[in-house]
Design brief:
By secondary structure, the protein is α/β, with parallel strands linked by helices. The protein is built from 35 helices and 23 strands. Helix 7 packs across helix 35 and helix 29 crosses helix 35. The radius of gyration is 28 Å and the shape is globular. The termini are far apart.
């Protein structure tokens, strides 16, 4: 029976395919993935996801995961919303495989749906920073334990679609280099990539529109959409007032007007001007925290007028609406305005801005007004200024027509010459890839540079950026002993999620914090600084920033995350401003608990004292908040007797990136847990195209991975003092305490070597199984730290030799399976462990 692509595509998306979409499906069906796909804006580039789904359903040999990477300036995650609609329509389209969806930003970020079952098709949407850092075994704001899991699933059996690839040439070069390196190393399930762009820097050898598209009524209407262009030379200081004046020429209309500016300062100036005039206005910038951005998109009636398909965009209104954007509005969001006002940027940026005007060709009277400095004011010796000057020349050549068709008729070489200057690209080598893959060494080490410059290139005209978040623990735990794992372990248990974070230039953030430090009451405010490596420095204060050497501060805080205590400083409508110390009216501070899954369900929560956690959540950490005088008292008993508060942190099993190894909704016997994980591993590998020997190694490792939990030191650490039964996880109410430096994975290796199951494997599979056991909590890549090399119940074992064996085995296996291939195999066992922990076990016992 032949596959009906048109019918399937229509059921998935709600509309018939365009000719280019049918042509790309045919390529996918033949197993061909174009290196580049050059499709003008407004013609549904994100439909490549639906095309991939349909092609897989038709039997195409395509990767199991599609990773959709958007530009770092993208602040509205419409791609994930569109993919959610596709999933809702799977059954109607006759696709029964299911589809996991995860976004690496927003409130649904990192919901583990994409990595919980590696045998299920999945779509992962994220930015260059979020996906790129994970692909390179880094991962901004995630701990070392989960970094190989992300690298394995993103770098193997995956198609990475890089949207607006012309905006990030360094990242595009990097992923092409990874493809090349994986081919050289013979990775078993290599990464595939496709650059997706409406404004290509390269030549015309990629997949493009064909003659049938030009004749199609929908395509021709959008390519010829009227966008009457007017250019206004003006001095820089008068630009924003002139733009506001132009905007107010539509104050008596019912039109939607979008304004673009290159700087946040210009945005705030324009907002003030329009607010003074009493017209409805909303802003969209990358300096707003994700939590507020999500709410803006979901509920703000002014913003939603610019989103095609919403009730607000279809409704008849009494007056105009104004949306003011930085470059954040240029990419990743399906905006459509009736009129556009802009300052002068580079050609790639201007083309994106014009794409937000009369996007679907529905109007015949749309206007674009560009306010620009006189050409004599642009310095041709400065690369960025020269690009803007070249852009102005091209805009003049358009003769008042900014339609996509007119833009495409401009000389390609002149267009590319007017793009933002290409950053310097740093070369990657096999030595660098090796260094980044050694994730169990989280501290900085020689030969392992930070990732940011490899993801974005080195650019003089792009200022460094810093992230800011708010967490209660910064204030509540100030001056307290944070325990053996320190703040790093706290943030591994309760990782920062993108909806908690805003990004701004390092310079502007330093200025704002220094201004706040001028207050005598605030200068001692504690801060946590999270470095790109994941290291957390907890000895910072506002005063230290105010008094620090400016150049040294900018170096230290670039690409770092500053965590502020919300009881002292709060965000103002999602922004960091000096007004954040003025009171409760500034908005919510700590929104860590607003990490949501499908249906808006919370995935984690922190509660004080005896508050009851939501059903099915498990305890991951309990903190006693007590005074210094109580510091020597016995934890929870002292808390109850002295009136100190208990702070309990919970998560929904199977959703988070924490180890989740100590507690469960009910106590679980070790043998039961091992059987459950073995069963999950069998289910997963049965659906994957793995050689039988690898399948067997994964299943055996799953069966034996937690044998080391039989040690008395581990059982006591989870509060089990009953020697008649051995638990894998404690139940609710158990007094879970630290297990010193003991690592049950090492003990599991020792015990596994005596197991008949392991002896049944051939030498290579046995080697792999032992590594999978050792690495199932993120260690053994390549080592265990010296202080963890002990087993109190196997004193006859030479632990130094065992540690060396772990390191050598990692090197052998990484050479055999490739860096990403080995991480992928490790992640199969970890996924099985997560899946078993998330489900109720076959047999359970509650702690007495």
């Amino acid at each position: 029976m032949s596959f009906n692509f048109s019918k399937t595509f229509s059921a998935l998306t709600g509309h018939s395919p365009l000719p280019w979409q049918e042509a790309l499906f045919s390529r996918f069906l033949a197993g061909e993935i174009p290196a580049a796909c050059d499709i003008p804006t407004g013609l549904g580039k994100t439909s490549v996801i639906a095309i991939w789904l349909a092609a897989r359903a038709a039997g195409a040999q395509l990767p199991r995961r599609l990773v959709y990477v958007v530009n770092r300036r993208t602040v509205v995650d419409q791609t994930s919303t569109e993919v959610s609609r596709l999933r809702e329509n799977l059954e109607a389209a006759g696709i029964h495989d299911g589809l996991a969806i995860s976004t690496l930003r927003g409130q649904m970020a990192d919901n583990r749906a994409w990595s919980a079952d590696p045998s299920q098709p999945a779509v992962i949407c994220g930015t260059v920073d979020m996906v790129g850092s994970r692909l390179l075994f880094g991962g901004y704001r995630i701990g070392f334990k989960t970094r190989p899991l992300h690298a394995g699933f993103l770098g193997q059996d995956a198609l990475l679609v890089h949207d607006e690839a012309h905006l990030e040439p360094a990242f595009q070069a990097l992923i092409e280099r990874i493809e090349e390196e994986q081919r050289r190393c013979g990775d078993p399930w290599p990464l595939r990539t496709m650059a997706l762009t409406a404004t290509s820097r390269s030549g015309s050898d990629g997949f493009q529109l064909g003659p049938e598209d030009a004749r199609h009524p929908v395509v021709s209407k959008r390519l010829g959409a009227r966008k009457a262009l007017s250019l206004h030379p003006i001095e820089e200081k008068s630009l924003v007032p002139a733009a506001v004046e132009q905007a107010l020429s539509w104050r008596n209309s019912t039109d939607n007007v979008v304004l673009f500016f290159n700087s946040v300062e210009a945005v705030h100036q324009a907002i003030a001007g329009l607010q003074k005039a009493g017209v409805p206005v909303v802003a969209l910038t990358g300096t707003m925290r994700g939590f507020e951005r999500e709410r803006l998109v979901a509920a703000d009636p002014v913003f939603r007028r610019f989103l095609p398909g919403t009730e607000e965009s279809a409704r008849t209104h009494d007056g105009p609406a104004f949306l003011i954007c930085t470059s954040a509005g240029e990419v990743g969001v399906n905006l459509s305005a009736d009129h556009l006002i802009s300052d002068l940027s580079t050609f790639d940026s201007m083309a994106q801005r014009f794409g937000r005007l009369n996007r679907f060709g529905a109007r015949t009277d749309s206007e674009a007004h560009v306010f620009h400095p006189p050409s004599s004011a642009l310095d041709p010796e400065d690369k960025l200024e020269a690009a803007r000057l070249a852009t102005l020349t091209l805009l003049e050549a358009l003769k008042g027509d900014a339609s996509p068709a007119a833009l495409s008729r401009l000389d390609r070489e002149k267009r590319v010459a007017a793009f933002a200057p290409r950053p310097d690209l740093l070369p990657t080598t096999d030595v660098l890839f090796d260094a980044w893959a050694m994730t169990s060494i989280p501290a900085p080490m020689p030969g392992r540079p930070p990732l940011a410059d490899y993801l974005h290139g080195v650019s003089r005209w792009e200022p460094p950026t810093t992230q800011v978040a708010w967490r209660d623990e910064v204030g509540l735990l100030a001056g307290k002993d944070l325990g053996r794992g320190g703040a790093e372990e706290l943030l591994e248990d309760y990782p920062l999620k993108p909806h908690e974070v805003l990004t701004d230039t390092t310079s502007r953030i330093i200025n704002t914090l220094a201004e706040l430090a001028a207050s005598e009451e605030l200068k001692s405010t504690p801060l946590w600084i999270v470095k790109e490596t994941g290291a957390v420095e907890t000895d910072w204060t506002l005063e230290r920033i105010a008094r620090g050497d400016r150049k040294e501060l900018e170096r230290e805080l670039a690409d770092a995350t500053i965590i502020l205590p919300p009881d002292r400083i709060r965000p103002v409508m999602g922004f960091l401003t000096s007004a954040g110390a003025e009171g409760d009216a500034t908005g919510p501070g700590d929104v860590a608990d607003e990490w949501l899954g499908d249906g808006g369900r919370r995935l984690r929560v922190r509660l004080f004292d005896d508050a009851t956690p939501p059903a099915e959540m498990r305890l991951i950490r309990r903190i006693v908040l007590r005074s210094e005088e109580e510091a020597d008292a016995d934890e929870e008993e002292a808390a109850q007797e002295s009136g100190a508060r208990l702070w309990s942190w919970y998560e929904l099993p199977g959703t988070a990136d924490t180890e989740g190894s100590l507690t469960a909704r009910k106590a679980v016997l070790l043998d039961v847990h091992l059987s459950d994980v073995e069963r999950e591993a069998e289910r997963i590998v049965s659906r994957l195209s793995l050689p039988p020997s690898l399948k067997k190694a994964v299943v055996v490792a799953a069966r034996l991975h937690d044998l080391g939990k039989r040690r008395r030191v581990w059982q006591r650490g989870i509060g089990n003092f009953d020697s008649t039964r051995t638990l894998a996880k404690a139940g609710p109410g158990a007094r879970v305490g630290p297990v010193s430096n003991f690592r049950h994975e090492l003990a599991s290796i020792i015990d596994a070597r005596e197991e008949p199951l392991l002896a049944e494997l051939d030498d290579e599979a046995r080697d792999l199984a032992l590594h999978l056991i050792a690495a199932h909590h993120g260690r053994a890549r390549p080592h265990f730290p010296k202080e963890e090399l002990f087993d109190p119940e196997r004193r006859s074992v030479d632990m130094g030799a065992l540690g060396t064996e772990v390191i050598n085995r990692f090197g052998r296996l990484q050479k055999r399976y490739g860096r990403w291939g080995l991480a992928y195999l490790e992640s199969l066992v970890r996924a099985a462990d997560y899946a078993a922990s998330a489900r109720l076990p076959q047999t359970q016992e509650e702690m007495p």
